[in-house]
């Protein structure tokens, strides 16, 4: 458990640093190139993400198999898993990308007006190369996670984000959006090479060069990766489709605003989910040694998740206009509206985390796939229907509905199949916390901070009162001692 807590905290610190660096990059791009070019960049990356299907789910499966084979005392098998996955992905993704290029190039004019199509097509080849590098790098990052060395993976990711920001500051003034594309290629190359070196430090038996490819290992991994890959396919109908629909029904600027708002909420959510991600290799090892402990870990994860996530998302709503001002330099009602809808969506989605990651650790990921299927179908159908009628607002509302419904289907099915009651989520001990969070969120939403900008006292109260109220309620909550006790002791 000590290692599990440590890895969760390391993940959270890494995501906090990465979020700060990413928002610095967004602020710079918005100030230098404008929100429309930021929208072009995000939509092209989302479109290119379809190419990830060529990895056949192997990069996600590396965590499970490395953790399992280490627990079984099979170091040679661990090396074979890593090299087999990396070599297979290098070959398959590298072969598919040139074939996809003409298809994606013809798709972009359907998403952008004439003023932005040329830019999108110009950066498309760079985005494909960057994706190939980061997909290969994901294998080595999964190997580090499987070895439960998330501290090394976190340091690698932060260093990669620093490099991306530095390259962007150097290249964007000279090359514009193409400079940002080159910066991403540099980041991808660094993550691939440095990731291999760090993994070799953790696994001395790992050779310098990749050569230990095994057909039998690939066959076994594909059996696990089938459902993971199906989930990845359906995920393409969620975020990439939402960005494409935003560009079609709202324009490049709307896609840019959606990207900013969504990244803010996702980065905050990731800080909380980080602890759950550490469960995957831990549960994979427990399946070998102590399977009875898995249910207890799930119950405790859900109980702590309620206490941590509700105040965080309530504060995000209360400070939404202030966060927008920090990111874009002005008050922007559209961004605040998008953030409010996305906070509700991802706030509901976060409770599917324990079930999702426990399923991955156990190796039973079928219902994860079904959850993504539900999200994808709802997002495409409702997104087109509401987008054609209500524009960008309709698209984001459809996106929120899809996330909420798909997530809670997974939670309900997991708890029913494993005989877990709803007391960890709906317990009476959470009542006053829920009331306080609703009150803080409502007050911040209907009395935004920008309206008090000319009144220092009101502005100070708006900034200080929400965290003070939430902090007091959290302090007197029964779970508080458990959460803080674990954090302080580790």
Task: Characterise the protein shown here.
- The protein has 490 residues and is an all-alpha fold.
- The chain is built from 21 helices and no strands.
- Helix 1 runs parallel beside helix 6, helix 2 packs across helix 9 and helix 3 packs across helix 8.
- The termini are close together.
Oligomer: single chain
Helix content: over 70%
| Helix and strand pattern | HHHHHHHHHHHHHHHHHHHHH
Which structural class do the helices and strands define? mainly alpha
Strand content: under 5%
| Computed Rg | 22 Å
* Large-scale geometry: globular
Low-confidence stretches: none
- What summary fits the major beta sheet? none
Q: Overall pLDDT, averaged?
A: 80
Individual helix count: 21
- Ends apart, CA distance between termini: 10 Å
Number of strands: 0
Summarize the structure.
By secondary structure, the protein is mainly alpha-helical.
Features:
mainly alpha, 490 residues, 21 helices
Helix-strand blueprint:
Elements: H1 2-32, H2 35-48, H3 58-71, H4 75-107, H5 114-146, H6 150-175, H7 177-202, H8 215-235, H9 239-250, H10 252-277, H11 279-289, H12 293-318, H13 320-328, H14 333-349, H15 353-362, H16 366-390, H17 392-417, H18 423-426, H19 431-446, H20 456-475, H21 480-489
